[in-house]
Design goal:
This protein is mainly β and 417 residues long. It contains six helices and 22 strands.
Amino acid sequence: MKSFFLFLSTLFIYCNSYAQVPAKTATIADSDFKMNSIGTPELNIDLKLALPDDFLLDDEDFFDLNSGYVALLQSKKFGELINPDLVSVEISPAAGNILRFIVTGFSQKLSELIAKDDAGIYITINSNIKFSAYKGGEKLNYELKVSDVEKFTSNKIILTDAMQEELIAAKGGSIFMSNNTFDFGILPKDNLEGSKIEFYANFKYRSEYSFSDNLPIFFYGEGLLTTNSDDTLNYLSLYPMSYRFADYDNSGNRKNFDLVAQLGVEGNQKFTTYRLSGNIYWQGLIPNLINLTMGEDRLRLKPVLKAGAKFYKEYENNRLVESENENSNQIFGELYYFVPIKKIYSLILDANAFYDFSDTLNPDEEIMYNISITLGVDIPNTDFKTIFKYVEGQNGITYQKDQQLMIGLMADLFSIK
C-alpha cells in the first residue's frame, strides 16, 4: 500500500511540474512520408520538431502526457472509404526530434485511396499533443496544436508507383497473393424440376510453416466445395509438403518467380476418387497485358503464369466405366490475372489447361481445360467484393465436364496476410 501511495505522489508531483512550466506552442521544421514494409506494412509520417539548439525530445514522458489521445486518418474527399475500425494511427517519438504517426490496417481500397492525388489524406487528433524537451538539467514544455498536425500531414501521404510495388511485395508479392484467395456464395437454381439453391466455397491457401527456420517449405491447398457433394466440378487438393527452390536473389530481394516441388493428395469432394500426386512447376510474373483502370489509381497485380508436370498414383476412382487405378502423369499450365476496372470493378481470370498421358483417362489425346471468370464490385467500408462468377470445363481429377454460375462475396487480396 505504501508503494502505491508513493507512486501516486510521484505522478502528482510530475504532473504538477509539467503544469508549472508554461507550455510553448511547438512548430514544425519539416515533414516526411515513407513506407515501412518490414513486417506488417505501415505508413510513417514524420514531423520534424523545431527545437532550440541541443534540446532533445523527451520520449520517457511522452506516452504519460498523451495517454488519452485518439488519432484518425481522414480524407477531405473520400472520408467514407476509411474505416476507423480497420485503419489505426499511433503516435510515437523517434530519434532526431521527430514525432512519428504510424498508419496500419492496409487494404486494397485504402492503398488505392492513398494513391489518389486529389484524396486530401491527412491525420487528425482529438487534442493537442504534449511533450517535453531537455538539455542537461533544463526542461521545456510544448504543445503541438491539432490544426498544425492536420496542416503538416495534409497532402503529404501520396503512394507512388514504387511504393505500390513495395506494398505488394510486402504482402508477399503477386505470386503469393494469387495463391491466397477465398470466395463463397450460392449457385442459383437451374431449370430442372426439384433443383434447389446450393452454397459453395472456393479457396486457395498458401502458408509458410513456422517451424521451418526460414527454409522455403510451405503448405498449399485449394478446392471448390459445395453443399451438393456430388457436383462434378467439386475438388480438394492438399499439399502438406511444398518446397520452393527459387526464393531470394543475391541482393536479398524476393525473386519474381518460384520453382516449386510438392507432394500431396487430390480428390473429389467426397474422396470417392483420390490420388497421391507429386508436382513440379515454375510460376512467375509476366507483364500486364491490358489496362482498364480508365485513369483511376488502382493497384495492379501482375499476371501469374504457371507451367509444370504432375506425376500421380490413383488409389480410388469413381469412374462410370469400371477401370483399374491409373499411374500416369500430366503437363499443365495455369494463368491467374486480376484486372482492376475503373474505380470499383474487378475482373479475375483463373484458367488452367492440362494434358494427361493416360490412354484410359485421355483416349482422344485432347487438351482439357478449366476456366473461371469473375466480375467483382467493391463493397464500401468492407474487405469484400460482390462477385458474379462463371466456371466451365473439366474437373482436373475426375475429368468430368460441367459449368456453373455463382454469386457471392470475395475477400480482399490485401487482407490475406
